[in-house]
Amino acid sequence: xxxxxxxxxxxxxxxxxxxxxxxxxxxxxxxxxxxxxxxxxxxxxxxxxxxxxxxxxxxxxxxxxxxxxxxxxxxxxxxxxxxxxxxxxxxxxxxxxxxxxxxxxxxxxxxxxxxxxxxxxxxxxxxxxxxxxxxxxxxxxxxxxxxxxxxxxxxxxxxxxxxxxxxxxxxxxxxxxxxxxxxxxxxxxxxxxxxxxxxxxxxxxxxxxxxxxxxxxxxxxxxxxxxxxxxxxxxxxxxxxxxxxxxxxxxxxxxxxxxxxxxxxxxxxxxxxxxxxxxxxxxxxxxxxxxxxxxxxxxxxxxxxxxxxxxxxxxxxxxxxxxxxxxxxxxxxxxxxxxxxxxxxxxxxxxxxxxxxxxxxxxxxxxxxxxxxxxxxxxxxxxxxxxxxxxxxxxxxxxxxxxxxxxxxxxxxxxxxxxxxxxxxxxxxxxxxxxxxxxxxxxxxxxxxxxxxxxxxxxxxxxxxxxxxxxxxxxxxxxxxxxxxxxxxxxxxxxxxxxxxxxxxxxxxxxxxxxxxxxxxxxxxxxxxxxxxxxxxxxxxxxxxxxxxxxxxxxxxxxxxxxxxxxxxxxxxxxxxxxxxxxxxxxxxxxxxxxxxxxxxxxxxxxxxxxxxxxxxxxxxxxxxxxxxxxxxxxxxxxxxxxxxxxxxxxxxxxxxxxxx
Amino acid sequence: xxxxxxxxxxxxxxxxxxxxxxxxxxxxxxxxxxxxxxxxxxxxxxxxxxxxxxxxxxxxxxxxxxxxxxxxxxxxxxxxxxxxxxxxxxxxxxxxxxxxxxxxxxxxxxxxxxxxxxxxx
Lengths: 661, 121
Hints:
Strand order of the largest sheet of chain B: 1-2
Pfam family, one (chain B): Complex1_LYR
Strand content of chain B: 15-25%
Shape of chain A: globular
Mean pLDDT of chain B: 76
Protein name (chain B): Complex 1 LYR protein domain-containing protein
Oligomer: heterodimer
Helix content of chain B: 25-40%
GO cellular component, one term (chain B): mitochondrial matrix
Number of helices of chain B: 3
Largest sheet of chain B: 2 strands, antiparallel
Number of strands of chain B: 5
Low-confidence stretches of chain B: 1-27
Keywords (chain B): Chaperone, Mitochondrion
Largest sheet of chain A: 6 strands, mixed
Largest interface: A-B, 44 and 31 residues
Family (chain B): Belongs to the complex I LYR family. SDHAF1 subfamily.
Structural class of chain B: alpha+beta
């Protein structure tokens, strides 16, 4: 006790230690790692910035607690794994809560249905860029997944006989496209995502997952090409935490905030994609950004496709239901990219609504008010608050808005992250998994059908948990990790915390968002994209000149926003560079200078007698992009699409064809 | 108002608030205005809670490397907070309880530190 008093008196007087700090031969950025308390005699308080690092060991770590993250986390806990869930938001605040539409599943409650028709619709919706084995897995598991959710207590809307109510949704058809509109989207009024997330959260409390809420994941701990855990910053007290584990699941969501106008929350910053990029691994198909046709003009809030499913129609300034011209069969329920392009063309040709003729109208007042009140209560209120419109009397002003990212971390159908080389093909990265919007399995290909995303979350969240349960056993000993693992992340954190340049975080962010909005929108041209790539590169370089104001470490939101900006920038440069290189129009990526799809065979003409093009000469392939974080230079490679389903007899693969609705 | 207490060795020490050491001092002082021997003011409820938290921390951090010096440093640093600043103390106390739960968790293994010499920046 006396010794402690002495020590405290010594420290109180801040006496510099007699021993000099040993000459630092490493670069000035290097941090020195030691177990706290030892070696303290060499370094005293007055001379160093110290970042305490708590080490944790788990069997599995899930980053992100949205729909996919929660499903993976409690799936793993159910299988007996010691699981940690690291999330920067409280689970019920993740962006899944904002999803409105529903979950597709071929339950057959409204009319006869078959999951193979759902499979066909998804493959066609993806413009034949989706991997058919993953799509087979998802559509076959769909009824089982929805029934499981219902058993968890999710309060689905019901039909008269008590079965789950299924509504019509974009791109869904019967009998492989020949049987008319299918009703297979299971929904909870118009707040399906909210119910889904709260149901999953409630269920997850039954299991003993350890939640680390408001911990911002900084980077993956990679060693020898294997993922050994995650390093995160605790926002509450500023301590660093290293979560060591044999299995890491990334479920961090999309990156809508790279654009100026989007339906995403402010927290959709693509953290998982950026972590994977900094680890030297590729991201897949980032140029495919979905523009949802009906985001409120001005505010950007989402009006669900379910409105059109319940009978709502899109009209132009002449009062015409213009979708009949662009998609004669499906009309307003065509695939989202088709509808977004149609609205944009109408506006360009001068038939836009409003004083500046720059948006379209979504009309709902022809529907019975009672139906609007039961099936679409949420958007009635949203329209009133954000557009000042009473949906029973006036139409809602809408504009295509960035909504979803089809691309992300490349995985196989089991949820394992893969890299690709031409010699060896697809290779699994040991210890790393991904699911949800952050992953690219790829079920959505070049365009996502509505209500497939919530399905994607639960199916692949569960798939990751199953795959980990197959490969590993709980309680396995962890492989050794270097003691200073995660040093670069902490060095970066330290650099940003004391950054003293000239540009604020908000200025750089707005520059990036405006560049993306102006140069990589619904319709893209080569010249405009090239200009955008150069501008984006310039904005990336200004990151070195950033200035932050809060020097503290406790609840430093300035620092966290700057880290998020770094993540957004990595996503943005990959998106715009991949878009510039892809010289065709496919799904959500439409080029004015290359209006057609370029496949290995020309599917518009009869196939007999055509020569199959080699992969270098056509575009039915996945883009794999990597970035050098120091320079911002993007390198692109390509990977073939998987064209065979999991079981050719049970469900035949769909050969490519012309995509029209 | 300074309180002067007599230690069991007879030395006069200034009693400080939130001291680390739970020294047992002979509770009593001579009041100058009356011949009664008053008992010293005891620790307030909040002080007792903080001391109890500290003891729990020390017990929990025994077997895990690196925690004890950090626990001592934190409490030492925060001992300079005024006794009247109850909001701040309660905030730190609640945060400390959450940190203690994490420390007690079987998955928390050790505490290290990344340190950067100030001169280099």
